[in-house]
Design goal:
Elements lengths: L1 H12 L10 E3 L5 E3 H4 L24 E3 L7 H6 L4 E9 L11 E9 L7 H17 L1
Parallel strand pairs: 1-4
Antiparallel strand pairs: 2-3, 4-5
Length: 136
Amino acid sequence: MLKQRIINFFYSEFVGKKGTPIFSIYDSISPVVTVEENFDSLLVAKDHVSRSKNDCYYVNREYLLRAHTTAHQSELIRMGLDNFVVFGDVYRRDQIDSTHFPVFHQADGVHLLNRDQDVIVVFLAIYDIYEQFITE
């Protein structure tokens, strides 16, 4: 299962000084989120097409089924987390065909940099890790 492979990879590749994983894994967060979580906190423009009732499954004016797992990032960061992966089903009003379905799985990984970290060096390290994961 790909999800378990990703979890195992993060737990083995990203460990702290004591040998414990530095990434937290979240895979059972409720798929019902607020408009604020799904769009506003991610700076999606108020008039962006992705907010449309034709694109999303709204429960009511304030809540919808998440269109992406990124909807949980702001909340987890506010909780003080700086390294985490979120897994979950996401819901979009796609026409069903050979490459589209209205429900699919998604994973987001977040690593917040501190002021001492060089963005380019971190990006290159992430690229190397991604390449290593893909070739395993």
